[in-house]
Amino acid sequence: MIDLKQLVSTRRTHFMGWAMILVWIYHFFLYTYNPIGPLSRSIGVDVFLFLSGFGLFYSYNKNTISKFYYNRYSKILFLFIILCLSISYIDGKGNLIGYLITYNYWTGQKSADWYLSFIISLYWLFPFFIRFVNSFKFKSYFLSLLFSTIALLVLKIMGNGDVGVYWRLECGISRIPIFILGIIFAQVDISKQDLLRQSIMSIVIFTPLALFLSPTIAFSLFTLFYIYILSKIPNNIILNYIGNHTLEIYVANIILEELCKKYSGILLHVILFTIGQFIL
Question: What's this model's pTM, rounded to 2 decimal places?
Answer without folding.
Answer: 0.88
